Amino acid sequence: MIIVTTYTISGYDVVETLGFVCGNTVRARNVTKDVQAVMENLVGGEVEHYTKLLAEAREQAMDRLIAQANAKGADAVVGLRFSTSEIATSAAEIMCYGTAVKLKESV
């Protein structure tokens, strides 16, 4: 599966547009880890717990997008984008979306 943020893929032509695909997940913060994050925030630098939480959320959202694209018979997803939104004080949705397409190699 080729996944790109562009709408074209070098060396390929889009021969069929299969439609919108997306993947999402909602993640909540861990209270115990929040205490550690507050301490890290006091001294400055990266808040590693949140970095890891968001990286895992993006990966899960991408896995779900890929599953949708595969179910449609896609070779690729073009125009990939990510979106985040706060659901509650301690929870956020991570969504990725794009267009599933069929490809053929350019001549």
Describe it for me?
- There is one protein chain.
- The protein has a single domain (2-105), classed as 2-Layer Sandwich (Translation Initiation Factor IF3).
- It is elongated and about 55 Å long.
- It contains two helices and four strands; from the N terminus they run E-E-H-H-E-E.
- It is α+β, with helices and mostly antiparallel strands and 107 residues long.
- The mean pLDDT is 89.
- Strands 1-3-4-2 form a four-stranded mixed beta sheet.
- The protein has helices spanning 31-43, 48-71, and strands spanning 2-3, 12-28, 76-88, 91-105.
Give the arrangement of secondary structure elements.
Layout: E1 2-3, E2 12-28, H1 31-43, H2 48-71, E3 76-88, E4 91-105
Question: Keyphrases for this structure?
Answer:
107 residues, four-stranded mixed β-sheet, 2 helices, elongated
